[in-house]
């Protein structure tokens, strides 16, 4: 087992851990540990909500979740020799559960508190608990379903530079300003409430808490990309923006569907990541990187039979035609899938939860055939223990 | 070889073929042939432009293409016993080239005539010709690239009912009305110019030409979905809207990337489709179908190594933050890929053409992490004969 | 379509074709055509028996097959510039059926005339006819089975040198001499009866007919390897033994299981091969080649669910223990599979025919754990339209 | 983490563990624990040699290994309700390393002490140590190689009945009697020396030690099958021969090539297995089982590019022709691969060690084309960090 650089005690709040991580992005959050290029080490992570969701049958904790506390991240890790403009090469050697916590959760957030991709259709909080048994999972809340996990960190990336952070804050504030009272909001702007900023204290804490970006969206540095294929064996190339790179991570998922449509949508869990890091000096300019790039690993669960649902960019309520809108098209594809599986005895909520958590493929199939985008969602039939093909 | 129900002569215009197909959607276009459920038959198709693009090195034909003529479709095929509300089950038994026409083309449409996904970046017409050699293709216009095809009909579907057609026309007209002078237009409304409507003549032709929908967008019936995975061996479940189903098809692609981003983006070719058809009586209600669903076949080219590029929904020119806009996020992912491969000696146009035509995977990875959608484009490294990994 | 270098008329015997191929191996059989390195061309082939087996329900033709006539090969093709010690690089660009002959056959040879892997269990001639529909096949003789083909030439290779031929003849004669009256024989020695030797005539024909090796076994040059994975898109590296390489091929299979256990075991058919050839000068010494090596192509049918049967090297009749005998172990694995599927309503003969023709994987799993070899046969469950899992 | 039913302390000999397992097969070895059908539990295992091989650079420990001590097995586990004739369904939920022992070894046994598949070519003891880093491994003894593991128990199965054991002992004794002084021996007969039999003591120990079968060969119950595909997520169906089933297991491999050709050939390690067990009452007769059958899991490492070597059944020293001998053919295929990779700077021993431990596919490609069997070994090129293709 590699050396554990960041250890968590699942029985304690994030703020009371021996090493305190962070739940905001800012270049001035101090590193908690340093490593050399070529090192292998383990990072443990709490689930993204800091333990707010429990292994029971009530969705009340999902309904009442305090989202000002997310995402609790382990790090930053300082990589010796890393400088702005370098590429930090991260090999995800392994992703796993922590002993005695072999379960995860998927939630539908209430429309008033977080919402989700289909919040107009499913506005009420709901929850599924998943039992993890080795490579497999099943949920007592969604019968006759079992599948292998594709474990990955939902969130991983290097700290932004001061300039990049300013750019994030400006563009997100501009967006919110277009409709400041919207529920759910258009973006989550910096919010000192419940900000955790590692070892920062006093005035420095106050300053950084005012400036630090929320962790919800993916951005240029990667961050909360929620890409299910960043699984075991992946190699990721991250742009470095600050000295030491300051790599942080969390939001581990046992599995997820493309889009993570329920928002709290993957199978969220605590867990560990085993990493190997290296540097490509000056790599950002050499390879023209704006965002991270990556090579998926060789042990993703593979399926040979899929059932695929199409969706087009026409609103399901009004019938309004949208222009090449992949968001609407993917929503329609998801809704089409939900409608189909309801014919096999599932509730809409169960399939919504399933599409967020099982390894479904969400594709932009056609994005130029004006005015309709065509998106597809491909569902491996082997995740069902029932026959779900038309006959 | 199965019986050829629809034969084409590639040396004659579409309108002069023995059987004349159509290039618009309308329930009243007469069927050209009928089959029983359980039948196996072959349909030949011209390329979608009716031969406007030639196997040479000049993009002038792409620049000057007359889009009022597209897509030339083979059909409609009447399926005996098919009634509205049935599912038409179509097995794509094979897709192939026609003798002596073993090549295809990928075009970038000029901004003024069609445009494409990245038209702001690549406003000028461009063309790549692909030589097809068995399962493989390569282009003299994009060096050191070779890959196996994933042949499929870009366009296939049953005729709409009168009601469905009216719905299409209304919603698309409403969209165009929001910005009627836009170039390219927001949608292509019914246009009698160059309409081909099978054997219709006289007043009936005139009426239908006024009403018939253009074939560009995918819609509820499927149509121009441009889904690369509708390849050999797929089984598709189509909703039936009119008696006899009236199945039509065309726009055969030797290969395509998800999104078909150059618009004329796949490797466009003439070719044939071998089909088996069957019916599920009353299947639309039984399975809750709004759009077609399908099962991909078992012989898609498979790759184990991909390089994946991420994109987020921030405008590349203005830096403006969009709200969960998968269209923008996928555009950024594509642009990131283009920038990367330019470092390996390709021009931007070459990679744009390649992303439209090679079997790249375009995914909606995250669609809930406000305000950024995260899309990814995964490119199999084996399509390059150069080493294209970072080092 | 590439130029056809070797055309066959399926209505004429092999000996009456415009170009006459051969059914023996000898360096002095004259080439029928020549090509340059870099060329792409098509070779048509009759089925390996020269049309002795018909598309009907009687196995009498299999029982009475004249094996002195096999395998009818198309070639030799002279590759300009090829010299002994070079590697001939052959790309199998495509493999397909000929128009109007879209069917194939699998036979169990009678013990007295050919036999097969399980001839002690199934001594009587039997036959299955397969209908080919695009990428798929099914047989009216084996219900509820459908699968995608993995088309390949069972037999392909360059002509042996005089020295290599002499070596083959000697070692095979030595083997036969150990039990000259065995039925079936231990090997098929040179036999002038029905020898076809291209354009050779008179005394030269007589001499070569006496010396030429039979085509049944695979040997150092490749030849009748019956490797199902030499399918579309493969690249093969052949040792060259004579000037011009003299490449020949035939015995096309629409599909086959590892081991081709029924001997006439694949789905045997007439068809065509599209090839690209090139040379690596001096490659045999450079890469230490004794036999051909190859890279399989990317479009083999892929399955994610297999049912796997184990076998060990203990004789099924006597209970005798063999020493690390993979032949016996694989036989037991096949017999175990047959016994299993008989519980699902199939006859033993049906499954024997199926294991010879469907894309089953035959593996040497353990070959060192004295005294038992362990072989496995892995059967994709998706080839059955029945549920064949234990429950 | 599931309950650990069998715990090992890697710092203590097998015989001094809290629970003592066994290294022989006999129905009368007492169970160490019992479980109900439906249970999930963890079993820890020492490496098969009980720690005789160390993480250093000297092959002396491999040369001097005491094979009378192998294989040290964890169990037997009593499954409540299991009776002879039932099928024991075992799900391999997970396979992993133990903390602080993340390494494994591959050995070439000396000809005088164990030998191996190529012992005539490589008669001297040799060793490679593998470092395990998450899903990957690399060895300081074989440069420029890295691959993902396919972890599995080399040995797992239920206790034989008294009758089955007698049958094993008789047939193996008969074989040894044909050449009793052979080195290595034709089989390992019962040998009380170093026999470990769980809690048995006194006269009962003495009786069982005289009768108990060695664990080396795979047999009807499964046992030491060394099937690399019995990896994470597999479901195995075992015949039950005695009341309680008495399931035992060990010989965990981090990875292995088909055939495990170096004998000590996989990447041998200590580790754990997470299992779920269930019963199919009367399943042996219902499904006609003679040996175990299994369904591989969905997370095996997958590769799309292989280099494949062929071998035929002709002796490499004498040139003697063997009759359909898959053992000889596979040996030739392996030797061909070794010869090839020596051209890339490796020693023969390095490649021999690699073929035993990397996930290479060993296939019986043709087993009927008299007199030559054709076997192939397919090597994923991605395991090399060098380019190993011909050019």
What does this structure look like?
4 copies of one chain form a homotetramer. Chain A is an alpha+beta fold. Chain A has helices at 60-63, 162-177, 202-211, 283-287, 326-342, 348-357; strands spanning 4-6, 33-35, 40-45, 73-79, 87-96, 103-108, 126-133, 136-139, 142-148, 152-158, 218-219, 222-223, 235-239, 247-253, 263-268, 271-280, 293-295, 306-312, 361-366, 374-380. Chain A has 2 domains: 4-295, Acetamidase/Formamidase-like domains (Jelly Rolls, Sandwich); 306-383. In chain A, a hairpin with a 7-residue loop joins β19 (361-366) and β20 (374-380). In chain A, α5 (326-342) crosses α6 (348-357). The model of chain A has no long low-confidence stretch (mean pLDDT 97). Chains in contact: A-B, A-C, A-D, B-C, B-D, C-D. The interface between A and B is large, with 95 and 96 residues. β18 (306-312) of chain C pairs antiparallel with β17 (293-295) of chain D, so a sheet runs across the interface. Chains A, B, C, D: GO terms for molecular function: hydrolase activity, acting on carbon-nitrogen (but not peptide) bonds, in linear amides. Chains A, B, C, D: This is Formamidase. Chains A, B, C, D: Pfam families: FmdA_AmdA.
Architecture blueprint of SSEs:
4 copies of one chain form a homotetramer.
Chain A: E1 4-6, E2 33-35, E3 40-45, H1 60-63, E4 73-79, E5 87-96, E6 103-108, E7 126-133, E8 136-139, E9 142-148, E10 152-158, H2 162-177, H3 202-211, E11 218-219, E12 222-223, E13 235-239, E14 247-253, E15 263-268, E16 271-280, H4 283-287, E17 293-295, E18 306-312, H5 326-342, H6 348-357, E19 361-366, E20 374-380
Helix pairs in contact in A: 5-6
GO molecular function, one term (chains A, B, C, D): hydrolase activity, acting on carbon-nitrogen (but not peptide) bonds, in linear amides
Protein name (chains A, B, C, D): Formamidase
InterPro entries (chains A, B, C, D): FmdA_AmdA, FormamaseFmdA
